[in-house]
Each structure stands twice: as structure tokens, then as C-alpha cells.
Task: structure prediction
Amino acid sequence: MNHTAPSHQSTDLKQPFSCLPLRATLLDNLSSLGYKTMTPIQAQSLPMMLKGEDVIAKAKTGSGKTAAFGLSILNQLNVENFAAQALILCPTRELAEQVSQAVRCLARLVPNVKILNLSGGVPMKLQLDSLRHDAHIIVGTPGRVQKHLNKATLSLNQLQTLVLDEADRMLDMGFFDDIKTIVSACPIRRQTLLFSATYPPEIKNLGKQFMQRPKEVLIETPHTEYDIEQYFYRVNSQADKFSLLKMLLLHYKAVSTLIFCNTKQQTTDLSKLLCDAKFSSLALNGDMEQIERDQVIIRFANQSCSILVATDVAARGLDIKELPAVINYDLAFEHDVHIHRIGRTGRAGHKGLALSLTTPADAERICVIEKNLSYPLTWRKNDELTSGAPIFYPEMVTVCLDAGRKDKIRPGDILGALIKDAKLPSEAIGKIDITALYSYVAIHRSQSDKAYRYLQNGRLKGRKVNARKLR
Ligand code: ADP
Ligand code: MG
Result:
């Protein structure tokens, strides 16, 4: 097998489908579906697929792989020939169903195309009836397709294109032998297309066994795109942003949300508005005293404050491991800054959420963001947000003690006092932070009064300390 050098993503150009030699009916339908430009995987794989070449295409989930092979199949289809010309193998029934629907959608304007789903979970007999009226395109799971081949109820003699969709998952699910059997029932002269979200050695191996000089199209995913759900919202003007923000906070209910503003003044103003609206919010900006900054960061990180409104500069020093959500109240001026902002969520294998509020004035910045992604931006509608949800309080409350490192206080001293002396359950105690002069302990809201009462009157390392709740 001769591998050509894999092509790499070029994100600066968005090409329309009309640069491809596609049939007019397919092009018309694409514009009716609202597909304006090709996604990177489509732009790079379609020209080769349309020439009939074997292609291995790797791109993350949601990057438009179905339309890539779907269009290639439909463009090459001869509807006059009532035989299975294309077979698309998918790992599960649900995916097979999705793919057949998507291909049907792409084929809307092509008259008389028959697409048949052959997946498990449906009685064989029902599928036999459909097979009698030969379908042009078969979508199915390897197990069920093989069963039909065994019973000779399906013939692949005239097959032109075989697609292995989600090939990595099919291998994970142990379908290798089934695929092998199915391939042996296909004509030797055929086009084989392999689509996958990942590209482990097993996939390369699959290509070696079943494909002819496959071309590789590998669209790399920037780290930030892996685990972050990024949604965009529109409002008409800056003045409409605050009510949308409140809805977003109530809808997504993240335990911690970092909100970015572009100016220091805005962080203070917005945080105050949020507090007035009964949200638990603090501002962080460069104008604050060090001790105040420390407290803000501690309270946000120990989850006794749910919202932090910050500038980019102020947020730089923030090291919070699992930040569930980031909101761009205003879009960053530079793309790198945008990526850096949203990269603060979705770390360490946790799913992150990044929301951006935009106005028509942001059009240019949005274009830049979109150009740098390997898939279209996801716009969400404001009226899909839950309205009227009650305000939620942070789970934890911070108690501040006026004794710190200078007094040789260590976390164990505080834990000991709260668990042994105050009889708090250990689960009720969260993060403990000790600075030079103060100690901060996060306590579950339900136990916070009890802890507070004890700390006010009890002793720490044999001495009386002053305690206060931060709010
Ligand atoms: P994948 O198989 O790569 O995970 P899909 O093929 O399911 O992704 O596509 C994800 C979504 O993107 C689908 O909702 C599809 O309709 C949409 N989509 C595909 N191609 C385009 C395009 N060129 N422009 C806009 N949306 C597209
Ligand atoms: Mg897919």
C-alpha cells in the first residue's frame, strides 16, 4: 500500500460546495439545507472521493463526515440500476438510523433513490420484503448485514462503494471479523472509504487490508475543541446582554462560572448587578488589594461563590482545576485570547462549557473564531433557555479565621477542630486555604452554622480565634 503524505487542515479558506463537480440536484439541495461552505474534512476528502479514490478520513465528531461520504455516494449513483451500489457500515443501530436519515436528506432532490436500513433489532422478515425491491444504498450494522449475506437475501455483486463509518468504534466493538466477511462478499474493484474520529494503528491496519492505495485526510483537533461545548448566543445590543446572562446562568446551573469582561470597571459593575439579582458573584480585577484578590480567588475556587467576573489580566493567575463553565460576556478582541479563555474549562478530562454573548457589532470577531474551528459554530436560541428557574446558592460557605501561617496553623488543625471537637461530618468540610494571616475553610451550607458557632467560641491550637463568614 502506498500512503500519500497526509494532507493537513487549512482553515483560512472556506470553500463552497459549488467548487466540486457535483450534480446540480445535489448542489441545489445543499443550499436548501443551509450548508453554505464545506467543513475541512469535506473540503479535503470530497475531491478525492469523487474521483473514485479510496480515502481514510479522520476528523472529530460533528465535523460533517456523513455528508462527505453521502455526497460522494449520491454523486456516483446510477438510479437506473436497481442494485446495492453502496454499503455503509455503522457500529450501532442508532448511528445507522442517523446516517440513513442524513443520506435521505442529502438525496431529497434526487428522484427514486432507495435507501435501506439493515440493522439489528428489527425482524429479518420485514427487511426481506424491502430487499425484494432492490435498494441503491444500504446502511447497516455489521452483524445484521452479515446475516443477510449468509442467507443470500442481500447481494453485493454490484457494489461500487463500501463505507466503514465510525471505524474506530466498530473495531472497539469487536466487528473486525464481521467486516472481513462482508468485504469478502464485495467486488474486488470497488471504492472503500473509511471514516473515523481517531486514528489508532488498528485503523491503519484496517486500511492496509481492505483498501487500495488509500489517501489519508487527517484533520487535527486543537486541544480546546476536544472537551468543550462551545455555544454562541445573539442579542440585539449590549443593553440586552444582562437579561440573557441571567437566563444562561439559571439554565446551565454550573457550580462555578467564570465570566469575562473586557474592562475592569465592567467586572465591578456586572458583579454588582448579579449580586443585586441575588446571584452569588464576585469581581476580580487588577485594581484590588492583594488580600482582597486572595479572598476572592479562594472563595471562587472552594465553591462558596459560584460566579467570578474577571478581566483577562486578572484571570491569568487563576489556577482552578475543574472549571465547569466560562462565559464571554464580551468577546475577546483577539482570537488567541478567546481560545485561552475557553481553554480554562474542559480540563483534565472534564467536559467544559463555553458560552459567548454576541451582538451584531461582533460579526468580524465571530468570523475569525469560526475560521479557526474545524466545524461550524453552534448558535443557540435564547428562547430555548429555561426561564423562571429559581436562583441557586453555592453549596459551600467560607469561614475565615484570623490565624494563619504566622500562627503555625496547618490544615490538620482546622480539620481536627471541626471533626473531633465540633463533630462535623468530614464530607461537610471542603477546601482549606491558609495564607500568612488568615485561614479559610469551606463548609457545606447545611453545616456552616454549626461550624461557625463552634469556631467562634472554640479554640484552634489552644488559642481563641476570631471567625467570620465571608459573604
Ligand atoms: P460526524 O459524522 O463528523 O460526527 P455529522 O456528519 O453527523 O458529523 O455532522 C454534524 C452536523 O453538521 C450535522 O448536523 C450536519 O447536518 C452538519 N453539517 C455537515 N456538513 C455541514 C456543512 N457543510 N455546513 C453546515 N452544517 C453541516
Ligand atoms: Mg459520523
Notes: The chain has 18 helices and 20 strands.
